[in-house]
Fold each of these.
Amino acid sequence: MALPRSTRPVRVIRLYWPVSVETIVAMTTGDGDAVARDPALVAMFAIVRADNALGDFGVYRSVVELAPGWEFFTPAAGARPTLGTADTGQASPTVIVTLHVPADVRDDVFDQLLDQLIAAHPWEVPVIELTAAALLLRR
């Protein structure tokens, strides 16, 4: 399918990252600095703000979209959850982090970035989605 406009191909990384209830409340009431006070987010932002392709929009670097949310889950008997206990339903305040990476970043470099994000993720089983997309450009 030919795209009718100018676009920039990207890889999209969507991460579901746990935060404190205080962070969710602060974010939803307009406190953008709350992310700098949440230890789990500080680790993720350190990776994004390093000299790399995460959030690369050309004249803008380290672009991150955050959306507040909740993760609901029940750990199985063999799990070692960061939050909750086996066989008991749990809710976790979570931010949905979206990062864009230029599609032409070499696969080995991209894999290293993913490895860093996975290593910093506090969950036993990180929830990270990868998709390909095209961003629209101004005419």
Amino acid sequence: MNSQEKIKKLLNQTVGKIHYNGWNNRTEYGYHSYKIGEVDIRGQRNPAKRIDAYKKYISFDNKIVVDFGCNVGAMLHHMPEVDCGLGFDYDHQCISAANEISKILNLKNLNFMKHDFDKDCYESLNNSLPKFIDIALILSLGSWIQSWKDLYSLCLKKSKLVILEVNNKEEGAPQLDFFRSKGKQIEEIKNASLDDLTGNFRRKTYIIS
């Protein structure tokens, strides 16, 4: 079995389960597409396109990057230039797939861990993080967790810069207000999520600094 078929099998195993908050990976190969070397697999969203948009504003070279709500970790899998990448998600099947895909792609600087932001304590999450994070990714997560203020507060404590994607204008407004209340600068870098196979184009992306 080649790398593409191995990754397809892992991704397919993350599909079908509906979680307690209503989230599920809907398409045949889940939430993330893969376009790395000879691996070309189409999922709901395209990490490469999203990252290319971010790179117009920031560099990931030799950075410590943490993806909160990482799903199968494809955002970090598409960032081979990072010094260290960590991902957290509440779906143990996604985390297992993320770590196995890292092995298949020979990405030794990545690690993925299970954490439920609404059920597991933030002290344990804090202890799993390095003392300092260069870039925190919070991508369309705030609409799916109740404790988003706790997570965002931790990110501000740990990270120099946050990339925030909100699901839509209505759900994103209180999240942006939270960062404004902390005196943070907010810069919109993407006004639509045109990479989404299902046609959900309403997401906007911001750099919080």
Amino acid sequence: MLKQFRIPVERYVYEFPAGLMDKKGESEIKVAERELFEETGLKIKKAVSKTPFGYTSPGMTDESICYVVAEVEGEITNKNCGLLEDIEILCLNRQEALRLIKEEQKGFDIKCWLWLSWFVSDVGDVKNI
């Protein structure tokens, strides 16, 4: 996951690597591969699963998202980030994730917080999605 400075909220926010589809018809896996590499230096070894598209705020916007869960490989680096991106890359185990969601009262992308809450729970196993 990432800790990234976000100008609209004037603070660092914990979130997952994410991005927009650059081309019409681009697959979710291709977007995930591109964004993961740009923001973390990691490559997708094997896509394990993906969620269906869902709307983030259907009363306000038509923005939709999906998650790709994958096995990854490579060395973590932020050297591929854009010049204006202020990103810290984090790899957390369950104990570290639990500490983070308990200590940080602000600064989460809510989608990331929900996934972390599930991850630290007894049922948090990516093979179950």
